[in-house]
Amino acid sequence: MVFQKSPDGGWGWVIVLVSFFTQFLCYGSPLAVGVLYLEWLDLFGEGKGKTAWVGSLASGVGLLASPVCSACVSAFGARPVTIFSGFMVASGLMMSSFAPNLYYLLFSYGILVGLGCGLLYTATVTITCQYFEKRRGLALGLISTGSSVGLFIYAALQRKLIELYGLEGCLLIVGALSLNILACGSLMRPLRSRGSSLPERPCLDKIPDQYLIYNEKEKSLYEDNLNILEKASAEEKSMTTAPSSGCKQDSLVDKNRLSSGAPKETDAYKMKVAEQSYFCQQLLKKKWHLYLDYWAETLGLFKNKVFSSLFIAIFFFDIGVFPPSLLMEDIARSSNISEENCIIPLVSIIGIMTAIGKLALGILADFNWVNTLYLYVLTLIMTSVALVLIPFAQTYVMLAVLSGVLGFLTGNWSIFPYVTTKTVGIEKLAHAYGILMFFAGLGNSLGPPIVGWFYDWTNSYDTAFYFSGLCVLFGGLLLLVAALPCWNRLGSSHQPEKPLPNLYSYKVTATA
């Protein structure tokens, strides 16, 4: 379907507004799940690694299922998917209030809410891209801050609701709030498709003529189908027996009534079945070639050394950087910092600084003298340093500063599409970004349980955050080495006349 030209304004700003609130309402609780994590630890008495699976699944399942989410939005549109996903998120949150054990939460909060959030994220991004072309970067930046603002507000909101109504009441109220996603989804008016009349179906008598555009081998498939049908109908006629004497009069009436139109209807039916059989064979052949092309393109992406380093870097980055947003409240409690000393929840600080980081790093990436790849690598290295310093923070002020630094650096999500585009090209962006988001979701899902298991084994978070910092540092250094300009010079010396089409061509002063 061909949509009309992007208006770059008008109703598009309404789309931006409702998409912002959609991400605010759906991601507020899952990103601020660290507040609920403490309550679940006390309620169920399970290990920290096992309990951390709930929050990690809520953030990782949507990314892991990103190909399925994209297919749903493409098939049904952003508005129906948003409304349906709003019901998913609301029902998952409300069902979690009645959780009798941790395994129930893994489904209701981890899988149901997480999958709903993934569908909503894909729907909001897709419809925003349809409405904006020249201002697409600004529009996407504005809606992406919805999740960060939601993290900032929901961290304090959920803590207050737990004090007033308990954990069950908190989840019921938060689930009721998420029903406002339905109102937001109803305003996501799709762009009208350009007026184009559908092609008329060809007459059945002229169907064989259209197969002349194919080769003789393909045309013979159509003729074989007709022969099979004629042979089957002849056998059926030979096997029919005469009607019984009691029903002879009725059968004669039926034959007289149907004799006039039967030959034409039989021929039309044969022609229709042959047509359908032929096109099914052609469709299967086409789908098979598309499947092979997809895997060939995927293998071609992994031959690009920068892309291979990028998926490793994003995987290790999410393993290391997501646990603080989930576990920071428990880290403060483990450091004997009472809740009265926490003026602002640490998770809220992470949320507001993530929003600032997304905007600041996104603006910085627009400057011509900034190399977005090296900027991204710098954020990874600084993140690893901040993670290693967490075990040395024993006061609220130090934890608040490190939370703010980690939140700001996590805003590098806003420049990640820039890096991906420069790595594989705009024509392969959607394919490559889906693969990278899968590995990001895998890192999100594994990070908090790994940190929790380290605590269960050592009764301390120190080893866990040393491990997280080293993971992020390894990914950043690997990506830096893969993108060094010397690799491009070596490649050009071997093939000066035919440079590889998909190699990452960064210079020291490359544009963003």
**Gyration radius, rounded:** 30 Å
Structural class: mainly alpha
Number of strands: 0
**How many H/I helical runs?**
19
Q: Kindly state the mean pLDDT as a whole number?
A: 76
Taken in chain order, the helices and strands follow as HHHHHHHHHHHHHHHHHHH
* Proportion of residues in β-strands: under 5%
Low-confidence stretches: 195-218, 241-248, 492-512
- End-to-end separation in angstroms reads 32 Å
For the sheet with most strands, the description reads: none
What helical percentage do the residues reach?
A: over 70%
Shape: globular
Account of the protein in words:
This protein has 512 residues and is mostly helical. Helix content is 76%, strand content 0%. The chain is built from 19 helices and no strands. Helix 4 (66-76) crosses helix 6 (102-131), helix 5 (78-96) packs antiparallel against helix 6 (102-131) and helix 7 (136-178) runs antiparallel to helix 13 (346-365). The chain is globular. The relative contact order is 0.12.
Give a brief rundown of this model.
With 512 residues, this protein is mainly alpha-helical. It has 19 helices and no strands. Helix 2 packs across helix 12 (305-334) and helix 14 (372-389) runs antiparallel to helix 15.
Question: Can you tag this structure with a few keywords?
Answer:
about 500 residues; mainly alpha; 19 helices; about 75% helix; disordered C terminus
